[in-house]
Amino acid sequence: MEVKGQMDFDELYQAIILDHCKRPRNRGTLPPPATYGSGYNPACGDEVTVFVRQTPERGIEEVSFESQACAICTASTSLMTTQVKGKSREQALALQRRFIDFLTKDTPEEGLGNLQALGGVKKFPQRLKCATLGWHALEIALSGTDREAATTE
Amino acid sequence: MNFPGLADKYRADFPILSQEVNGHPLVYLDNAASTQRPNAVIEELARYYREDHANVHRGLHTLSNRATALYEKARVAVAHYLNAKKAESIVFTRGTTEGINLVAESWGSRNLRRGDLVVLTEMEHHANLIPWQIIARKTGAILHFLPIQGDTGAIEWSELAELCRQGNVRLVALTHISNSLGCVNPIKQVCRTAKKYGTVTLIDAAQSAGHAVLDVEDIGCDFLVFSSHKCCGPTGIGVLYGRQELLDSMEPYQTGGEMIVSVDWHEAKWKLAPHRFEAGTPHIAGAVGLAKALEYLESIGRRKIEESDHFFGTAAAERLRELPKMRLLGPVGDRAGIVSFQLGTIHAHDLVAFADQYGVALRGGHHCNQPLMRKLGLMASARASFYFYNTEAEIDRLVSVLRDAAKYFGD
After folding, report:
1. Do A17 and B408 meet the contact criterion of CB atoms below 8 Å apart?
2. Which residue in B130, B342, B349, B411 has the most chain A C-beta atoms within 10 A of its own C-beta, making it the best mutation to test that interface?
3. What is the ipTM of this complex?
4. Is residue B94 part of a domain?
């Protein structure tokens, strides 16, 4: 029996999400002078740390992450790393805003590429934090001052 | 063990259970978070508001008298349920959490001194941990944790006697049944040991009050706390049992109306317990509903409920153990009706979301046991918790949904 709830669920856990959860891209740490930022979700204990190596001239040269988190959080962060590599800091932050607006304000998906796959989260508001945690960590990493404890609260 | 089959007789009393969730019959396995309510309780709440409500203890009119009588009758009912000698030992609170905060603040701030030990276990719920952290900071008392051994939750209790013998343990506060490990702690022996050395005891009965016979005289505890919503009663109300001389020696927790004997511009005098601790208009309907819930549980029989819990916990654990890559927490043999686990590398939130699509309600997270989960090397775990209205077929549904989840998220 195909029911609405199940369709929403399969939309949430699309193949690309499951793929990035099982085989995360750019997993690992980067040594200094790379900077990092951590995100923590106190509701479930999920943790993500994002590392970036950037220069003013060439933007984000390297990006990686480590996570102990659910499929949505890990996949969203993994997808993020594939998208921001090679972008300038400003471009990466603009993408972050566009992505969060897409999930929270239902703005168009233009320019989001495969991040669209996370659109299923819109029907599961309690999972919104999962999808955005890595992005908050990225913002901190990009600020260039190593900091812990961004929370999505 | 044979299936006790209480659901055959009692499941129909719970209207909420006969619904579909996401196109599948609901399998409610989140009873450790909150149980459901039988018609008897739902109807009693409606009846109270329809017929008897007014404020308590102050009106002189008929409705106020009726409400007061019902509220105080509920106190007597709770005292009977716990075999407390006096109804004055029963304080109505908002729940287990408020009960422990009350004791920590009102008893702890007066009785704890620098260097005193407060002994807890590593399996305490945050509600039986953080209030003691705060009061330890204020008084200079030191928290000591009895360690658990591995995933089973076993505790070497002889350490407690040793600590007490050394002399400065002022309080032991522990859970009766662990909300994440499902183990049952030997509270009677703990209280006997503590009493020998004049150590005060508090039992967190949140997971046992609706599930087992609790006799405070037999247990020998000084304080015992529980929540109504985990034993078929309304939310927003709970119980603190305290030995009366202790309660009467404690300062109020909150102040205001209802709890005073006389008030002047610059000072006030309080009533004795329990009213000293019930400032403001209490949750009258909650107390009335709780009394009805306890009456309902007694009509089934708590020994039968306990036997049923242990059947479900033990049987579910055995079945789950058969799944590949299953890591089960809690005791290996007999256990209460709470089973927490980690299935392969699947995150508990993904697992709970998956199960929900098939109508199976589980809990996923740290279960308000963050330090414990960290010690076990887990960020979170999934939990199935049972009550007497669950059926044997629901264990099958649980196992089958977990098998499907393993395939869905599998490596």
Report:
1. no
2. B349
3. 0.84
4. yes
Contact assessment for residue B171 and residue B202, using Cβ atoms and an 8 Å cutoff: yes
Number of domains in chain B: 2
Cross-chain residue pair B364–A44, CB shorter than 8 Å = yes
Confidence (pTM):
0.93
Select from A4, A9, A66, A124 the residue whose CB has the most chain B CBs within 10 Å, as the one to mutate to test that interface.
A9
Closest CA to A103 of A76, A137, A128, A81: A128
All residues of chain A having their beta carbon less than 8 Å from the beta carbon of residue B22 are 3-6
Is residue A119 within 8 A of residue A109, CB to CB? The reply is yes
Residue A15 and residue B61: Cα distance in Å, rounded? 67
User: Is B37 within a domain?
Assistant: no
d(CA B380, CA B154): 20
Residue B191 · residue B241 · CB < 8 Å:
no
Q: Are residues B25 and B47 in the same domain?
A: no
Q: Say whether B23 and A46 touch across the interface (CB within 8 A).
A: no
Are B255 and B131 in a shared domain? yes
Both tokens assigned to B178: 């662990």
- Measured in degrees and rounded to the nearest 5, phi and psi for residue B303 equal -65, -40
Are B261 and B269 in contact by the 8 Å Cβ rule? The answer is: yes
Residues of B with catalytic function:
368
**CA-CA distance, A43 to A121, in Å (whole number)?**
17
User: Which tokens go with B30?
Assistant: 């989140």
As a whole number of angstroms, the distance between CA B201 and CA B298 comes to 26
Rounded CA-CA distance B291/B66 in Å is: 15
Chosen domain end from B299, B331, B354: B299
**Domain range A4-151, CATH class:** alpha beta
Which token pair is A6? 């199940």
Per-residue pLDDT of chain B (411 residues; tens, 9 = 90+): 677 889 999 999 999 999 999 999 999 999 999 999 999 999 999 999 999 999 998 778 999 999 999 999 999 999 999 999 999 999 999 999 999 999 999 999 999 999 999 999 999 999 999 999 999 999 999 999 999 999 999 999 999 999 999 989 999 999 999 999 999 999 999 999 999 999 999 999 999 999 999 999 999 999 999 999 999 999 999 999 999 999 999 999 999 988 989 999 999 999 999 999 999 999 999 999 999 999 999 999 999 999 999 999 999 999 999 999 999 999 998 999 999 999 999 999 999 999 999 999 999 988 888 899 989 988 889 999 999 999 999 999 999 999 999 999 986
Chain A: closest CA distance from residue B404 (Å): 13
Residue B354 in contact with partner chain A when CB distance is under 8 A: yes
Q: Which two tokens stand for residue A40?
A: 């923590």
